[in-house]
Amino acid sequence: MTILLLALTITASQILLGLAMGCAVVRMLRGPRAQDRILGLDALYLAAMLLLVTYGIQTGRTLYFEAALVIGLLGFTGTVALGRFLMRGEVIE
């Protein structure tokens, strides 16, 4: 019973994360300002990272956890760089 419940919960979370990714893509494409597009991109990489984590839990392989860690680090760095670019007009001081 618990294995079936875990499998259904992981599948439901993957479906919801896919919907969240779709909403983030819509925000990226239709955002009226650059800040909205950056937040859409931030939400997109976060949902992709969580999707990889849930898939790693489902399959039991550690490769997906490492890929999620790399996506998290690169996504955070990219968000900070884009935010700094919007605030100051330059990334590197």
Which CATH C-level class is it?
Answer: Mainly Alpha
Number of structural units classed as domains? 1
Question: SS-based structural class?
Answer: mainly alpha
The mean pLDDT is 92
CATH topology (fold) name: Helix Hairpins
Number of helices: 3
Largest sheet: none
- Note the gap between the termini: 57 Å
Q: Indicate the percent of residues in helices.
A: over 70%
- Tell me the strand percentage band: under 5%
Named at the architecture level, the CATH assignment is Orthogonal Bundle
Task: Indicate the radius of gyration in whole angstroms.
Answer: 16 Å
Kindly state the number of beta strands.
0
What is the chain-wise order of helices and strands? Answer: HHH
Point out poorly predicted stretches. none
GO molecular function: sodium:proton antiporter activity
Keywords: Antiport, Cell membrane, Ion transport, Membrane, Transmembrane, Transmembrane helix, Transport
Main location: membrane
Transmembrane segments: 6-26, 38-57, 63-87
